[in-house]
Amino acid sequence: MLAVSFASWLDLPGYSISECLGGTPIILRIPKILLCRLPSVAIASYMECYAKQLALRRNIRPQMKVTSITKQGEFWLTEGRHKDGRPFSITSRQIVLACGKTKSRTLGVRYSYLIYSSLFYAYAESEYRIIIVGDGISSADAVRYCLENDLPVLHIIRRTDGQLRSILMSRLSPSHYVEYHSIYRLMVGRDTHSLYQRYTASNIIKIENDYIIVRTPKGDIEVAININ
């Protein structure tokens, strides 16, 4: 799997990807045309190499889960567990939460705070369509997962058909990102799938226990769901 970002975008201060991987077997096996976007295994190798080169290993704690962060006077107490279950605690004057975004996007309606990190329970309720909102990489991953597991999908996209022509996935190489290209073609209506239905220029305006209301350019539509 190739990284979505170009290799030059992933350089860290003080030691670049080219300095770390240049001339190594992992690079020599990659065709020159692909070097602008590296496979994930190369990025993982760079991260490990970076920590070693800059003597940061003692400051990096992998495979740990943070369970609580509390203020203790002038200090912060971070607590959690190692992968094997052993507890840990770290006291520091400052703490930075690297969440990727400063603000999560929400639907702004009741029940939209319900978040599930897995589609495991969808198998038991496969007669209901899986509602997926958005047009980014994560949304495409969710669509692909559902279709690969024969789960029906209702894809709600806020952008219009015209606006979809300029999103990130429209610029991904069809030969390098076959899976994303196939989902993008579904999103813009170039291809069809028996388990996939889309609404563009649409949004969810109401969520109840057994249905949602989707506002589309052609009017409001009620869709049966189950969020119990």
UniProtKB/TrEMBL annotation:
SUPFAM superfamilies, per database record: FAD/NAD(P)-binding domain
Domain of life: Eukaryota
InterPro entries found in the cross-reference section: FAD/NAD-bd_sf (IPR036188), OSGIN1/2 (IPR029731)
PANTHER family: FAD_NAD(P)-BINDING DOMAIN-CONTAINING PROTEIN, PROTEIN CBG05349
Official protein name in the record: Pyr_redox_2 domain-containing protein
